[in-house]
Amino acid sequence: MNDQILIDGNKYLFDLNLQQIVENGKVVLYSPTLDLAGIGNTEAQASDDLKAIIEITFEYAIQKGTLEKLLFSQGWQKLEGKIQSRPLELSAANYHKSIAISA
Fold it and tell me: pLDDT per residue over 14-64, tens digit each?
C-alpha cells in the first residue's frame, strides 16, 4: 500500500507505513516516505514525537509555500486529489499508522 496524505481544509490525514526499531531501550518510528522519525521510551512516546515532527515540518513548508515541492522531491505524487507516495516494499519491521494534524 502506498502512503497517502488526504487534505481536508486545514487538516492533513496521513496514512503511513512506518518502520519500528528498538535499540538501547529506545523506540524509533521512521517514515521512509517522509524521511522523518520520532523517538521515545515507548511506542506511544515515539508516535507522539513523530507527529510533532511532522506538524513542525508541514507548518514550515506551508508557510514557505513549498509543501508540494518538499513531497514531490521525495517521490510523492498527486493522484485524484490525494497525495501518494511511491510504492514501498514492506518488511516484517513495518506497520501501518494513521496520523491527523491541523496546519
Answer: 778 888 999 999 999 998 888 999 999 999 999 899 989 988 998 899 899
Query: Which residues partner with 18 through β-bridges?
Result: 95
The enclosing H or E element of 17 equals strand 11-23
Task: Provide CATH code, domain 4-102.
Answer: 3.30.160
* Domain range annotation of the chain: 4-102
Q: How many CB atoms lie within 10 A of CB 59?
A: 14
Q: Which residue has the cell 498527486?
A: 78
pTM: 0.78
**C-alpha cell read off for 93:** 519491521
